[in-house]
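We close this part of the discussion by returning to an individual protein. Part of our work consisted of pairing the sequence of a single chain with a tokenised description of its backbone. No coordinates are needed to read the tokens, only the vocabulary itself. The amino acid sequence and the backbone structure tokens for this protein are reproduced below:
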Amino acid sequence: MTEVNTAPRVGGWTRFVTARPRLSLLVALVLTALAVLAGSGVADRLGAGGWEDPAAESTYATRALEREFPGSQPNLLLLVDAGDASVDTPAVAAEAERLTERLAGERGVTGVGSYWQSGAPALRAEDGHEALIAARITGDEKTAGETLERLASHYRGAHGPVDVSIGGPVAVRHEMQTVIQEDLTRAELIALPVTLVLLVMVFGSAVAALLPLGIGIVAILGTNAVLRGLTELTDVSVFAINLTTALGLGLAIDYALFIVRRFREELSTGAEPLTAIGTTLRTAGRTVLFSALTVAVSLAAMLVFPQYFLRSFAYAGIAVVLLAAAAALILLPAALMLLGHRVNALDLRRLFRRGQRPEPSEEEGGAWARTAALVMRRAPFFALGTTAVLVLLGLPFLGVRFGTADDRQLPSTSESHTVQQHIREGFPGSPGGGLEVLAEGRATEAQYGAYKQRIAALPDVLRVDGPLVKGDSAYFTVLPEGEAVDDPAQRLVGDLREVRAPFDTKVTGTAAVLVDSKNAIGERLPLAAVLITVVTLLLVFLLTGSVLIPIQAVVLNALSLTAMFGAVVWVFQDGHLSGLLGFTSPGSIETTLPVLMFCVAFGLSMDYGVFLLSRIKEEYDHTGDHDQAVRHGLARTGGLITAAAVILAVVMVAIGTSRVTNTKMLGLGIALAVLMDAMIVRSLLVPAVMRLTGRFTWWAPAPLRRFHERFGLSEGDAPQPAAGEAEPTRDKVGASAG
């Protein structure tokens, strides 16, 4: 029987990837070694910013002020603490002035000023014991970080009667990069051994368990090399390396799990290794290909946004997804060809039980088959109940408030966070949090004065300083009455941009950057949503040949993310569990984070959705029995999807142990999303909805059926009816693809 089936089961791709397995693995080893060399030091070349729109008014104004008035945009702050003395005492003032003059003479530093030079009230703490020296370190993020490292040890600490701490945006960014690199190393040390243990529990065989881990490592190292190359062409965010690790391990393990599991199933039926690989690639391999495409599309949607923070995740995500899929479809079959039946070697579970319990057969069903049967018997209850629960969990997101990433991303013990917290709590008017108005064009002193009066008359304005004039340019500093980025400050940005002036004006500052960032995301969000939706609908249609299933997939996937968004607001914005999780809540969510989390989590949800739908479609092509196909699909993939979700959640939780709040939010939020998707949506909601839609689930109009018959793909070959049997009367959607 095996000889009869061998010829049609071994196709061109199978012959290609199994022809010289040793050579394939040797080439992969060499390329991986080269990737290690190419990707070394990538973290040092990544930036810690990227939240602003480079084409926005605020970005233009910031760059112009940096160029013409460097003192208006300080990124380095020295907090001078006089202890019990006043900052105005002669000894303190003399030492502070010496430090100011010394800093002004440093290479790479410009725009140095201090309270002792200007007497500006905003630079003196209200209790009189602390004051600020402000300066600007020039150059890009990497150059500025190197300058800060060179200066920090010479200025930090005790200087006679004062003690100096270092803060400001450049210090926050530099410290964030350092913390992220340290946390990523710790996350990898946590995730790798725990993942290996879970894989051994899933497969039993230590040999089989090592294969997914190897694929993940190849994908991660390859992506690091890609990111290193991209840093020569564009800015890349340091946060992207966290996604590289998480998706590299998670998706590679997903794909390898699916392929190795199917290979072992085929071996258990008596197939030879080459035949088993051919069947595996034509079934699970196609699923992996479709899954990778859907995840890559979700991540590619972030390319439509101008912020390099979001674009960086698209770069890293697309690279790691494609590399994971390529490794799973090229290297893994070569390894399986060499291992053959030895893929089941070193079954560690035998140490804890007698004998080897076989996996539940299709007829036995097992717990997942019983779950599917129960859900389908009570389909309306499960469909409405799970939907209601998911909607309820998402309600906190209705109260989301958007803000900017600042020093509160760092742990409360970090120096730059401590300095900024002292400034927020002890200095008047939020120094560094004001708005700057750039005025371009020749104007008289009277015109500047009249414009200043119009600004001062606006609501929520505490004080207006300036103008400082240089040639045909000038700038004003406007301090809002409240917090730097609260709602009144954001409204003030719009009011300032509406004030009439006889010259061109541009507004920048923290609140202006936030307003422009929100506008940029809002303008491009519909395009990103359309891109994800249309391409996902097309890919799922090509896989299933159904009109309804792609719509169900998009809607149910989006619904599966509600718990994640609700939890993000309830925990990270409102501050619940902040003590347990060890972070400081800024009272808002960074504007780009929901977009990032949606794209990543939606892609991962589609990953699991494709796994389930492909197995359901394969069974439906064989039997034409809709209910049986749903039960069979859940029975054969429920445990696999759950195991994959748990492993990915472990990786994301390891990332979520980061001391940087955004990384913690990303890791823990996506961990929750994948668990909810695998355990609630795939296990309960999908089979319930498919039971309610019945055989109509597979309907497509005639033109689309013909399109799918020509271009579509489905898992496996539709079997020929045995002698004496009638061929099923249903449409064999996609059968020609086998």
About this structure: The longest strand covers residues 461-470. The mean pLDDT is 85. The chain has 25 helices and eleven strands.
